Amino acid sequence: MDVEKIIKEVLEELKKNTSQKGNDIDEHSPDARTFTHDERKIVSVDNPKNLQTIEHARSLTPARIGIGRTGTRMKTKHYLDFRIDHAAAQDAVFKDVDDSVLKELNLPELRSRAKDQEEYLMNLDAGRKLDKASAEWLTTHSEKDKQVQIVVSDGLSSTGVEETIPDLLPALIQGLQVKGITFGQPVFIKKSRVWVQDEVATLTNCDVVISLIGERPGLATSKSVSAYLVYRPNEKTVEADRTVFSNIHEGGVPPVEAGAYLADVISEMLRHKASGVRFASRKKE
Amino acid sequence: MRLTCELKNSHFQFHSVREVLAKASEEKSGDTMAKIGAASSLERMAAKLVLSELQLTDIYENPVIPYETDETTQIIYDDMNKLIYQSIASWTVGELRNYILSHDTNASDLKKLSRGLTSEMISAAAKLMSSLDLVLASQKMKHQAHCNTTIGEPGRLAFRCQANHPIDNIDGIIASVKEGLSYGSGDAVIGINPNNESVESVSRILTATHEFIEKWEIPTQNCTLAHITTQMEALRTGAPIALMFQSLAGSQVANEDFGVSKAILDEAHDLMKTKGTSAGPNFFYFETGQGSEVSLGAHADVDMQTLEARTYGYAKHWKPFMVNNVSGFIGPETLYDGRQVIRADLEDLFMGKLHNLPMGIAPTYTNHMNADQNDQEIAGMLTTVGGANFYMGVPGGDDVMLSYQDTSYHDDASLREMLGLRPLAEFEKWLEKMGIMENGRLTKHAGDLSIFDE
């Protein structure tokens, strides 16, 4: 079956569903019209010197280049593409991670102190601390004194957890196993921020905590995940003590590759007993 | 200190200059989160009223973070001109505002005034000013600096070509650089945010942008927005750097969080003098922005706007080539919506200029805040009217590496043409040579990156 045929069938199915939901528009009436967003990224520079050059440049980056202009402004299609992507990204912030994904990944679900998304967005501290039940669970059930503890956080993108973690997490775990690095069972912490890793480190008494956290959705992707690593955090730990590795998703750093790379970084960190700027400026042998 | 205010049959009390400053701020979610903002609209006005009657000496004697314990405060106080300060110490903040806006006060007067003010005084004046006040006052001031190009000349508006790539693919970066240049963006700097912060990767980007600039003989400078210590290491190992970047904040604790201090900045400046590729004498590019301290838990009960002013007071010590805010980059917990971002951009432009800084603006928004393209464009137009030196230039306004929105190459060209502003002088000649611009307008070849085909 060719792609166009599939798309057509899917669209027809969607149309059926829409009308089933009690939509009172009759699409069979003679004045009914359907509009579909053309998602192709097309080069639309007027009379370019070399169209192929621009098409090739387009293939090198997800950035919005080769889009041409009318006067000094964007052409209508590109302006609307931008606004549509922004609308989708805004909506993505308010979705929760699907339970079935957590089950498949065998991740116990802990929570921060943020009761809802509004509190999570507006009160940083709420997302930086575990709620009472989660802290107790970690105290009782987590494996202590391991070298590494992995934390998965939804952060600002549940889509990032759903789409990227299923490839990233197994690759990271495999990398640690190959190197003989010990780690406790990874956990998921709902509505949590990076700094929650400090509390996790204290409760599990591990050397390195690595947080895999959904990045705020961009227009190009909402699947991106960042890894934040810290070596033995304490009350004096600052931002510059954390090592960050961002843009992990299929269109950025591929998740499987990132998992293997992060295992290497962790192994180095354990050897140098440091993270962040101090780790970055270590003497390479 | 005990300051009380009777207003509309209500009674308000404040315990410090710091509290008055915080409560006199326009509403911002970061100050609310820090629990230091005004509790009601009338309390906000009571604080503004009290502030308008405080003398500059009250503010001088009560820095929001003590001199003894904070390097930022020390630099601000040590760098100011005490003679000029003494001549205005008895002014009230209300009188300071009147002086700034008066027809009798010109650019040169303000340049001199600046040297007698602490950052808190500048923040205080801004709290008594409306949008129009801030734009008009900003218009009066224009500060120049020189790296390879001269930025800040009257009638000129520059742009940083921000050609980021999610995984630092060099060909992808250069493709976006070409696109930006073809719209006339890149005279402030070709400045890339690296995804991979390793010295090797940062050096690779620096070499690529440097070679491109050399090959096409572009009058501009290159830069990567890596941590300053990474750039210093790159510079020591021979990477070509024309402009050195660092993010700054308004308190010592927050700057320590950023991994930066006076000692590091001094060392970097010396390194640029001896190993950098550019003419100078202005070698630094600083980014700032309201809300960084509160998101680091380092606000010390000082409001975001005053901390931003203090960041400028700190930054000017190193005579930067460019300073811009990125208020709006963090999210709704610091600036809730478009209205708060626009206000912050206007405050930042005014406060930066009254610190005698070559100030640019980055009107930005993220996808988890209540703002959109319309708000951003309003902030862009207003601050251009206010005479910002430069903006960012991002392909299609969508930064695919940092996942936020900033001014686009299209917006850059639009802001110039709307107000008849020209690119930086040397760069404009280059655009003409390349056939991209004629008489200050884009030609039909603009926007076509294939003009760089050989």
Characterise this structure.
The complex is a heterodimer of chains A (285) and B (454). Chain A has a domain at 99-280: Rossmann fold, CATH 3.40.50. In chain A, 44% of the residues lie in helices and 12% in strands. Chain A has helices at residues 3-20, 51-60, 76-92, 99-104, 117-122, 124-128, 132-141, 158-178, 196-204, 255-272, 276-280; strands spanning 109-111, 148-153, 187-190, 208-214, 225-231, 243-248. Chain A is globular and about 70 Å long. In chain B, strands 7-6-5-12 form a 4-stranded parallel beta sheet. In chain B, strands 8-9-10-11 form a 4-stranded parallel beta sheet, with helices on one face. The model of chain B has no long low-confidence stretch (mean pLDDT 97). The chains are: A alpha/beta (285), B alpha/beta (454). At the A-B interface, helix 2, helix 3, strand 6 and helix 11 of A face helix 11, helix 13, strand 13, strand 14 and helix 20 of B.
Radius of gyration of chain B: 21 Å
Unreliable spans of chain B: none
Largest interface: A-B, 61 and 67 residues
CATH topology type of the domain at 145-452 in chain B? TIM Barrel
CATH class of the domain at 99-280 in chain A: Alpha Beta
Note the run of SSEs of chain A as H and E: HHHHEHHHEHEHEEEHH
Q: How much of the polypeptide of chain A forms β-strand, as a percent range?
A: 5-15%
* Cα-atom radius of gyration of chain A: 23 Å
**End-to-end separation of chain A:** 55 Å
Mean of residue pLDDT values of chain B: 97
CATH superfamily of the domain at 99-280 in chain A: Ethanolamine ammonia-lyase light chain (EutC)
Characterize the biggest β-sheet of chain B. Answer: 4 strands, parallel
What is the name of the CATH architecture of the domain at 99-280 in chain A? Answer: 3-Layer(aba) Sandwich
Portion in strands of chain B: 5-15%
